[in-house]
Sequence to fold (163 residues):
Amino acid sequence: MAHTDYIKRAEGFKVEEALLERIAVITNTLQKVTVEGKWDYTYAEGKWTVKELVQHLIDCERIFSYRALHIARQDTSALNGFDENQYNDYAKEEQKEPSELVEEYLSLMRSVYYEFKGFTTETLTLQNQVAHYVVSVEEIGRLMYGHSLHHLDVLKERYLNEV
Fold:
């Protein structure tokens, strides 16, 4: 899914409202994973476990949050992309308890909400180069919303068998 598709998922929301709204939805889904005991489950050979998926969301939350701050503070140096599979290879999420992964992710999402709540209207319009595209602070927030909900949909459909 392209970044623009993630960004479009937040249409109709103020960016900080979207970032706050997702926390309850994600919390409920991760509680279902715990109840069903599916943290080490993968739906197909070569696919991530739920722990790996949540670690991916944590990594992306940190990276996207830094990118937004970098641009908001008017640092004009270009930002690099990253390889999520390489990050996953070195994450060591299997050493974490599911409750720790959940708390880490929820804490990050709350922190990101406050980060974006503190940005002015003008700050949200600031842009910079990230890898091969130009993006604004606001678009990064919308991307964060859409990216997390995209993976939540995958989690519900393929790991929890919800339609």
Summary: The chain has a mean pLDDT of 94.
